[in-house]
Write a structure and sequence with these properties.
Blueprint: H1 20-43, H2 49-71, H3 73-88, H4 94-119, H5 125-146, H6 149-155, E1 158-159, E2 162-163, H7 164-202
Antiparallel strand pairs: 1-2
Length: 203
Amino acid sequence: MTVSDGWIGRWSPGIGDPTIIGWVTVGLYALGAWQSYRLVKRHSHLMKAREATLWRILALGLLALGINKQLDLQSALTEIGRMIAVQQGWYVRRHEVQKEFIYTIAVCAGLAVAGAAIYARKVHAATVLALVGSVCLLAFVVLRAASFHHVDALINSEYIGIKMNWLFEIGGICIILAAGRWRLRAALAQTNVHSSVAGQATA
C-alpha cells in the first residue's frame, strides 16, 4: 500500500469542508471564541480566577478548532499513523489499534468530565454547561480523527437529510454558545446590581 500523494501521505493543506454547512460551522466556532473572549475581557473581575481561566481556554480552543475545521489537521495525524503502521508492518492489525484508541479516548473523556467537574466547583452553572459542551465537542473531534469504520458510519449517517456529524459538532458548539450567553447575562445583571448599590451608597 502506498500513501504518498500529498504533503503527508495523502493529506495536503487546503479547504477541508467547502460546503455551506462547513462554513457555517466555522462561523459558529468564531462566534463562540469571540463570545468567550468578550466575556473574560469585560467581566473577569466578577469571576473567580479559575472560572476566568476556563473561559480563556474555551476561547483559544474554539478558535483552534475553527481553523482546524478547514485545514483538517486530524487527517494529517491519521495519515502519519497509517504511514507508521505500513512502515512497521502492523497495518493489517490497524483495527485493533483503533479499538484501543477509542477505548483510551472514552476513558480520557470520562476523566476530563470528572476533572472539569472538580475544577469548576462553585462556579456559575453556565460555566459548567459550557464545559459539558466542550467535552462533548472534543470527544467528537478526536473520535472523528480515529477514522474507525463503525464510528465513521455513525457520524456520517443521515436522518431526514441531516448528517449526524452536523448534529454532534454544531450541537456541541451551540451548547457552549448558549452557556456563554447565559454567563454574559448573569455578569451584566451582577454589574447592574453593583452599580445600583454603589449609587445608593453615594446618595
